[in-house]
Specification:
Strand content of chain A: under 5%
Oligomer: homodimer
Shape of chain A: globular
Number of strands of chain A: 0
Helix content of chain A: 55-70%
Largest interface: A-B, 35 and 35 residues
Radius of gyration of chain A: 16 Å
Order of helices and strands of chain A: HHHHHH
Structural class of chain A: mainly alpha
Distance between the termini of chain A: 40 Å
Chain lengths: 151, 151
């Protein structure tokens, strides 16, 4: 258990070397990348949610594996929020992502922190522990979407 | 160094608990997921390639971080190759993904093995070591695309 947590921490320590700023030549590449990262993250987060909400049977090993993926991928999409890629359609980022960038970054950090806690909780092999951590993490998704995403 | 390799190994050990079979309700969800996983993987693999090919300056920490992401995400797309999702357009999977599934799975495994080696090599902070491992990994992408992807 301890070694697993150390492993997750070491992996995330490495990821800190990824540039926070965009590295995309074209805005459409940045948009495609961030959407892809959210799709992967959302798929695995959704599987944890399905267990937390009783839609699929609880499987501790699968919960831990899904949380591990979420924990890595949650670090990624934000580099894709390149200037000039706000939208107006449903699901696109609102302009305040850039006009209130510090607030947006703080919301992203809050999600990543809750996801890191979920990754620890998911290794406990206990459904109630998973539910609590999932609910906290899901709350950070919703609050950021409410504030920065076109409904 | 040793602890970083152990960390990467432990992370991948966890991921073995992810189901190999598809877990998607609709074929379009499986297609969207696998494309997203390849987009994320390809972006980070491409950054290593840009260093290996001298298009961007070598940065050992960034190379290691990108390889870590590739190593996790390389495990993911194959669950999205759901029966009945072959295509004919450029870039879609050919029908032999399913008619020769064991061969396809072996090609995927070969790529994942080379990516795991790349992840170790990227931690050596040496451009020549990175180049060699990148070239081997890139070869497995190409051979699988040549055989199983519509040109």
């Amino acid at each position: 258990m301890k070694s697993l947590i150390l492993a997750a921490t070491a992996t995330l320590g490495l990821l800190a070397a990824l540039p926070a700023t965009a590295q995309f030549q074209k805005p459409e590449d940045a948009v495609k990348y961030r959407k892809a990262a959210f799709t992967v993250m959302g798929t695995h987060f959704g599987r944890i949610g399905a267990m937390a909400n009783g839609r699929i049977p609880f499987d501790g090993a699968a919960a831990a594996a899904n949380a591990e993926v979420v924990n890595v991928v949650a670090k990624l999409p934000y580099a894709g929020f390149m200037e000039g890629t706000a939208g107006t359609e449903k699901g696109t980022p609102k302009a305040n992502v850039w006009t209130e960038r510090a607030k947006f970054d703080a919301a992203a950090k809050k999600m990543q922190d809750e996801v890191a806690k979920l990754n620890v909780a998911a290794k406990a092999n206990n459904l109630d522990t998973l539910k609590t951590a999932f609910t906290s993490a899901a709350g950070t998704c919703k609050s950021c979407h409410d504030e920065f995403r076109n409904p």
